[in-house]
Amino acid sequence: MNDFSTVIIGGGISGLTCAKYLNEKGYGFMLLEGSDALGGRVRTDKVDGFLLDRGFQVLLTNYPEAKKILNYNNLDLKYFTSGSMIKAEKGFMKMENPFRNKMAYITMAFSSVGSLSDKLKIRKFANDLAEIPDEDFFKMDATDTLTFLKNYGWSDKMINNFFKPFFGGVFLENDLVTSSNFFQFVFKQFFRGDAAIPADGIQAIPEQIAEMIPNNRIRKNSRVKGFEGNQIFLEGGEVLTADKIVVATDPHTSDDLLGETNKRTYNITTCTYFSAESSPLKGEKFIALNPNRRGVVHNVCVPSDISINYGSAGKSLISVSTQGLDRLDERNLTSRIKRELFDWFGAQVNVWKHLKTYHIPESLVQYRAGSVKQDLKLADNLYRCGDYLSYPSLNAAMQTGREVAGMIMEA
User: Fold this and answer.
1) How do strand 382-384 and strand 244-247 relate by DSSP bridges?
2) Is 324 left (phi over 0), alpha (psi -120 to 50) or beta?
3) CA angle, corner 102, sides to 126 and 169, nearest 5?
4) What phi and psi values does residue 407 have, to the nearest 5 degrees?
5) First and final CA of the chain: distance in angstroms?
6) How many CB atoms lie within 10 A of CB 172?
7) So which residues are the signal peptide here (predicted)?
8) Helix or strand or coil: residue 374?
C-alpha cells in the first residue's frame, strides 16, 4: 500500500515547491522526475572546469516567493552591481541604481543614457511602485510595455538606450510587447532588491529546495507516460495509485499528459559561453547591454566576476546572450559574436575559446497585456503548476507550486 496520497509529476521549481509545502505539513506524496537531475530549466553544467548555467539566469532577491522558502546565506549568493553598463560609441555608459548606491545620483546626472528629466522619472517611478503590493500588479489594467513607457513620458533616447536593451533582455523580446503590469512588477524587484547568482551555479536553488524534502519522496529517472483516474503509468510498466495528481512539467509535456492542445508564443534566447584569460569587463559586476537591437549581441556578462567559482584555473567565463538567431548554426553564430565583440573589446576576443552554446527555443511563454492566470485545479483529483500558467518567472513557478499545495491541503 502506498504511503503517499499525492503524486507530483515533474521536479522543476514549481513541483519542488509544491512538495516542500506538502512535506512541511506532513502530507504524503511522491515526486517523479523524468530526468537524472532536479531543477527543470534551472540547471548548471560543468564544462572544462567552468560552471555553465543553462541560459543566462539570475535570482532577484526581492521576489516574495523566493524570500519565503530560500535561505540566501546558505546559497552563498554573489551579487551583481545594481544597474548596467550600456555600450556607447566609445566605451560604456553606466546606469546605476540610486536606491542601492547613493553615489549613483552623481553618475546618473552626468550619464548620457537619457535626459535629467528621464532620470528624475526613474526615481519617482521606483518610489511609486514601492507602495504597490506585489500581488496587486497583476490586477491592474495593462498595455504593452513600450506604450506604457512612452505614455509615462520617458524620451525615445532613454527607451532605446536603457529600457529596450535591459528589459528586452529580461523578457527575451526586442519590441517590449510584454504586458506593462509585468514590467512594473519586475522593475520593482530590480530596484528594491538585488540580482544575484548562487556561488556554485543557479542549480543550487532547486537543490536547496530538494534538501527540504526527504530523499525517499523523490524519484528521478521516472518518466510518466500518462494517467487515468487515480492511476499513473510510468515508462517500463510500473503503475502508481494516488488520490491527487499534480502536473508540474514543462508546457508541452503538460499538454500531452492532459490531452490538451494549446497555442503558445514563446520568446527565444541563445546563450553562448566563452573562456578567456581575463575579464573583458575588467571585474565590473554589471551586465553590459547593447542598445543596438539590430546587433547580434544583446548582452554580455562575466559570471566569474560575480562568483569566482564559475571560472576555471584563473580563467574568466563570458556569457553572451542573443535573440532571434535560432536559424544560425553554432559555428556561424560564434563567429558573428566574435566579430561584433571585436568592436567592443578589441583583439582579445580573437583568442576566446568557445565552450558551449545553449539554444532555448521555448525559454519563456510570451506574456502580453490581457494575459490571465490559468486554472491550477482541473478536477477534484487533478492539479497543475508552473510559471507558464501565471507569468514567466522563478517567482511564479514557486507561487503556483505553493498555491497547489494549499489547494490539496484544503481539499
Assistant:
1) parallel
2) left
3) 50
4) -65, -40
5) 22
6) 21
7) none
8) coil
Question: In this structure, is residue 238 part of a structural domain?
Answer: yes
Q: What is the DSSP string of 242-308?
A: -SEEEE-S-HHHHHHHHT------EEEEEEEEEEESS-TTTT--S-EE-S-TTSS--EEE-HHHH-G
DSSP 37: S
Spell out the per-residue pLDDT of the chain, length 411, in tens. Answer: 577 899 999 999 999 999 999 999 999 999 999 999 999 999 999 999 999 999 999 999 999 999 999 999 999 999 999 888 999 888 888 887 655 554 444 445 445 677 888 888 988 999 999 999 999 999 999 999 999 999 999 999 999 989 999 999 999 998 999 999 999 999 999 999 999 999 999 999 999 999 999 999 999 999 999 999 999 999 999 999 999 999 999 999 999 999 998 889 999 999 999 999 999 999 999 999 999 878 899 999 999 999 999 999 999 999 999 976 666 788 899 999 999 999 999 999 999 999 999 999 888 999 999 999 999 999 999 999 999 999 999 999 999 999 999 999 997
Quote the CA–CA distance of 59 and 112 in Å, as a whole number. 29
Indicate if 231 and 281 belong to the same structural domain: no
Question: Is residue 92 assigned to a domain?
Answer: no
Range of the domain at 296: 44-80+194-202+266-365
Q: Measured between alpha carbons, how far is 123 from 160 in angstroms, rounded to an integer? A: 18
